[in-house]
Amino acid sequence: MKLTHLDESGRARMVDVSEKPVSERTAVAEGVVRMSSAAFEQVSAQTVAKGDVLAVAEVAGTLAAKRTGELIPLCHPLGLDLARVEARLDPELPGIRIVARTKTTGKTGVEMEALTAVAVACLTVYDMVKAIDRGMVIEDVRLLSKTGGTHGERG
């Protein structure tokens, strides 16, 4: 299997997408932050000292999606048509479930943008709630689906 991010000498490089066709590309990723019941109660009641945890995490994730090309060395900088991050309380964890949806029309996919959005939103939750619960766990950051490009749909 040929690795696309390595040149003939084995050095890392950005993939040349200039010959690829333009198509609509989408991606959906998710992740969770597990926390103590006490922390979950404060997040739910919006009594966390740093403010509205869900709203701040959503904004942070959106900003991160837009800056993925600056954060991940070999990612192409993309103009996104959509970066939507939803942070929801999940009492079964207990914690917060974060889902990010990204979309563009271009020559390369947007899965890294969706994954980056989720990861940064999860880190934002951790930062805002760590004074209450330093034992929180960020887990299951993963790609749920992607569409577009030469490899078609993946779900």
Question: Can you characterise this structure?
Answer:
This protein is of the alpha+beta class and 155 residues long. It is 30% helix and 28% strand. It is built from four helices and four strands. The chain has a four-stranded antiparallel β-sheet. Strand 2 and strand 3 form a beta hairpin. Helix 2 runs antiparallel to helix 4. The two termini are 23 Å apart. The mean pLDDT is 91.
Features:
155 residues, alpha+beta, 28% strand
Structural class: alpha+beta
Instruction: List low-confidence stretches.
Output: none
Question: What's the rounded overall pLDDT mean?
Answer: 91
Strand order of the largest sheet: 2-3-1-4
Total number of helices: 4
User: Roughly what percent helix?
Assistant: 25-40%
Q: Specify the overall morphology.
A: elongated
* Topology order in helix (H) and strand (E) letters: EHHHEEHE
Rg measurement, Å? 17 Å
- Report on the biggest sheet: 4 strands, antiparallel
Distance between the termini: 23 Å
Total number of β-strand segments? 4
Strand residues, percent: 25-35%
